[in-house]
Please model this.
Amino acid sequence: MSLSRKRKKQLRKLQKDANTLWESQQVLLGQAGDVAREAGRQLGNYSREQVVPTVQHGYEKYAAPVVSRGLRTSAKVYNERLAPAAGAVIGSALSVWDAANEKRDALSSGRGFGAIDVDKLQKKAQKYGKNATKRLTVTAPPAKKKMGAGGVLAIIFGIAAAAGVVYAAWQTLRADDELWVADDPLRAPDA
Model:
């Protein structure tokens, strides 16, 4: 089955148009890649010059005072309420432990059960309680002027957003290899 001359002429014309289209697509995609690279470079510059300082300023102005106020309040509650109560409980438990050990020693040495010195036990409980409270209290570290975790997170989110924009631009401008596959990148395949 042979093709007519008219059909062959039409197929050659179609092949020529396809080759022309393929070459223009290659040039266009090369230019689009250049534009995407420059857009990524400019996005990085914009992020470095505009986004990061704005995020740092916003963090320092709004989030940092709230976080530091919350830390001060929680340290105050812990140091003024929780640590003394825990210290008292620990001191009482240790003084009872000491009293039990003294009575055990007295019984084992044959001195008998004898009377319990309550004042001595109270003094020991207070002493143990003060020591435990001292060890349980939290002292705030000196304030530092470096960027905190919030600033780092904000920078990471900014970089991730910039990467998302670059990826979306790349997906939009990239060549769709599934539509056309050629052996020679500048020459379309023969029909």
Observations:
- Residues 171 and 178 are 14 Å apart (CA to CA).
